[in-house]
Write a structure and sequence with these properties.
heterodimer; A: about 120 residues; 6-stranded mixed beta sheet; B: about 120 residues; mainly beta; 11 strands; globular
Chain lengths: ~120, ~120
């Protein structure tokens, strides 16, 4: 079975700073997807970024980028020029490439951006 | 194109009552996933359904919980004889047909409180 671990329950940074959220996972699969989801106080789950395991290039979406280390089974999220609206819970998630598209989530990191 | 619609947003039930949670997937989506989020935890997969079929229910508690996705109408997650431990946010996600990865879109969740 796959597991996803986020070792930072809470983080806090000042606006405009860069912050990195950590995620490690365990799987015997060779092909899979990794995700970061944002959950603001509204509870809506918002997809931030997606990485396909067979792609060596790290995914980027505007201010959000990942550091994907497949051998180390590590998938960290970097938020540059952080904004107040980035305040939310962030969840790392894993999904196998084949079969049911069910996501395995980590425990989450509560990120607070301070003015 | 409306997003994934869940209702009600909030549901309060007394111990022993039944809870019915509804999920209308996005137009054109035939795959539905239910997840449960306990307080301060990540989402946990419960069940994956396609129209009139349960594909994977490996995350469903063995008793009191059932799910359906009829040919017409929304998907229903039903919890019989609710207990305090059922209090959680229940999320539905939907995705289009097909076996390869496509993004699953989440609803805003139903927060169930058992008193």
């Amino acid at each position: 079975a796959q597991t996803v671990t986020q070792s930072q329950p809470e983080m806090s940074v000042q606006e405009a700073e860069t912050v990195t959220l950590s995620c490690t996972y365990d799987t015997s699969e060779s092909n899979y997807y990794l995700f970061w989801y944002k959950q603001p106080p509204s509870r809506q789950m918002i997809l931030v970024i997606r990485q396909e395991a067979y792609k060596q290039q790290n995914a980027t979406e505007n201010r959000f980028s990942v550091n994907f280390q497949k051998a180390a089974k590590s998938f960290s999220l970097k938020i540059s020029d952080s904004q107040l609206g980035d305040t939310a819970m962030y969840f790392c998630a894993f999904m196998k490439d084949q079969g049911a598209q069910k996501l395995v989530f980590g425990q989450g990191t509560r990120l607070t951006i301070n003015p | 194109n409306a997003g994934v619609m869940q209702n009600p947003r909030h549901l309060v039930r007394r111990r022993g009552q039944e809870a019915r949670l509804r999920c209308s997937p996005m137009k054109g989506h035939s795959h539905v996933y239910w997840y449960r989020q306990l307080p301060e935890e990540g989402l946990k997969f419960m069940v994956y359904l396609q129209k009139e079929n349960i594909i994977d229910e490996s995350g469903m508690p063995k008793e009191r919980f059932s799910a359906e996705f009829p040919k017409e109408g929304p998907s229903i997650l039903r919890i019989q004889q609710v207990v305090r431990g059922d209090s959680a946010a229940y999320f539905c996600a939907s995705s289009p047909p097909g076996n390869r990865y496509t993004e699953a879109f989440f609803g805003q969740g139903t927060r169930l409180t058992v008193v």
